[in-house]
Amino acid sequence: MSEAVLPQRFLIRRPGLILSGLLLAAVLIAAFAPALFTGQDPITGVPSERLQGPSLAHLFGTDETGRDVFARVVHGAGLSLRATVLAVLVAFAAGSALGLLAGFRGGWLDAVVMRIVDVLQAVPAILLSLALVTALGFGTTNVAIAVGVANLAAFARLMRAEVLRVRSGVFVEAARASGVRWAGVLGRHVLPNALGPVLVLATVTVGTAVLEVSALSFLGFGASPPTPEWGALVAGGRNFLATAWWMTTFPGLTVAAVVLAANRVSRALDGERS
């Protein structure tokens, strides 16, 4: 089969994956360069244009102060995605470190870490995030840390399972027998061979983190108004559902589309790994 035919067959068989990738790429570009998508001011509104419906001038309509909703969604991508990335990094780094040490060292450390993981997994992630952000205080960074801590248990458990699988390998036993210190065995042999499934889990967690960050922002724990953030945009339109449905609908659809796209891409990566 010619090389020119392969991309065409891939596009035909997996159009959802292609669309998901394009959507995520557009959101990432919007996060770093929102001016490429809109020239409207997301903070200052025009009172004479308040509560206008979707049109060519305002693709997502305007809000109660005349601000362009599309501009606020685009500019809100940066803050929402930064919080999502930070949350996933916190969960990945902390959870992987705990699972790595617990699985490799075993004994009392393994027992203590796994009991902590059991407690974290016994509480729904969104409730644990809510409790943590209430203790930490308001702000996007605190929201990201709370979401990351609430999701680290899955990373710890998966990393521990992978470490238990890898540490019984012949190459690990050979490294130990040759006198390599345990830190060297851990860093050079165990971690690289156990990291693959955990990285896939990180991509899966992106969609969950977007949803949880938006939920906490919706409840008012995120950035202070009038800073645009996806969850806060959905919350801001609640009082205008009867007269200005677009204020809540379009930011909500944006969150849903990003979550679905992230899950679609993560499933594809998981399928390629397996």
Automatic annotation (TrEMBL):
Keyword terms: Cell membrane, Membrane, Transmembrane, Transmembrane helix, Transport
Protein name as catalogued: ABC transporter permease
Residue span(s) of domain ABC transmembrane type-1: 77-266
Main location: membrane
Pfam families in alphabetical order: BPD_transp_1
Membrane association type: Multi-pass membrane protein
Family to which the UniProt record says this protein belongs: Belongs to the binding-protein-dependent transport system permease family.
Subcellular location: Cell membrane
Residues annotated as transmembrane: 16-37, 83-104, 116-137, 143-159, 198-223, 243-263
InterPro entries in the record: BP-dependent_transpt_permease, MetI-like, MetI-like_sf
